[in-house]
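Sample intake sheet
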Amino acid sequence: MSFAHIIAAEEEPLHRQVPHNIEVEQALLGAILINNEAFYRVSDFLEPVHFFDPLHRQIYEKAGQLIRLSKTADPRTLKSFLKENEQVGDITIAEYLSRLAYEATTIINAEDYGRTIYDLSIRRNLITIGEDMVNIAYEAPVDMAPREQIEDAERRLFELAEKGQFRSGFQGFAEALKQAIDMAGAAYQRTGHLSGLATGLEDLDKMMGGLQNSDLVILAGRPGMGKTALGTNVAYNVARAWRGEQQADGTIKTVNGGIVGYFSLEMSSEQLATRVLAEQAGVPSSDIRRGAIHEDQFDRIVEVAQEMQRIPLYIDQTGGLSIGQLAARARRLKRQRGLDLLVVDYLQLATGTSRRSSENRVQEITEITTNLKALAKELNIPILALSQLSRQVESRDDKRPQLSDLRESGSIEQDADVVLFVFREEYYLKNRKPKENTEEFFKWMAEMEQMAGRAEVIIGKQRHGPTGTIELQFEAELTRFSSIAKEDHLPARYD
């Protein structure tokens, strides 16, 4: 009997074998035992769990521990960490280790062997997921809807796909430089020559360079400030600017704007669509709902609705989504239709996936923000997540928000690449109306006139740019934000 079959002989071929290759595992372990340098050729992607044979897992794990401690891993040093008198076929483990080293050839193929072991492990995991799907479908609990099973399977498959990507580790500066040049080239072709997605708000884009891929952007504000309005404005502007080009492999590559996914955890898709329709048609949403519109307004609504039907903006109105379900649906949209920007409205309405996190709100928000940041990196898109602010804002004279006002602010502030606050002084002034025909009233009227239709977007944090404040125009009836026209950009006046 050959050495390669010492372990394999114990397996009875009573059913179809799962993918594995004992000979390759033995060859890699042998290479490591004769030259510990071989371990570093595979250690950044290969873990003990990827080996099929339990004994090989132990050998790889113990060898790795010794090598990382700058000690020698060979048959003599390893045998004391294993049950050396235990039998492997008709030989002991100590003799088996010696045979591994004796029959090893070279470390040149170590990485190829490692990748083979890794790929076979991924295939075994696929089989496990498939078998679990079948078993759960046959014996599903009463409280588990088929949709939940589909989302759970998607989550496991995408986790496996993420793990199945070999990490390159260090890369040469030339490769990093090539990526930087590609980014600059893409920016040159985009509207506004931005490196990220244009929000459609010129001053904000100048300060941020657009919404950057893999960034988690938090947009926070107190109720009534217009954060949902700003979120829908940005989502629509990005989707309306979308332009794609077909590649040689048949896929569509985004060259301007973006395909947008919008999780509306609070409002229905009909309410959200009415808002966007009002913004774009210039007709108050309250008038649209009451039917209090003129014929020319209706024609404008129809015209805008026809334009809106063509834009790649996809809305998910499911309430109470867990962060795991949200991630699974975002991945599905990316795979089926493409995805360049994800908007979550709003953060505190999502739920955690673990029972432990649901018992502690701070832990739950930490899980949500950490997973959103990981999802942004995985899908390589910006995620714009709206967030509530704590009530402590209301107790200050200056009600402009600060980073400390974020609810459960520790994790949100830490995980976010950019934190934006939307603030409207007009909202607070309106609620402080004094008695009419008094000196305070006329002073209040002057302040109201000055602040009418004005909003501020405060950049409280930005990893790759400055912080500061941008002034915007806000039309409350239309819930629409727009850039403020500058004096030097106004058309010439003739008196």
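Comment: Confidence is low (pLDDT under 50) at residues 487-495. The chain is about 45% helix and 15% strand.
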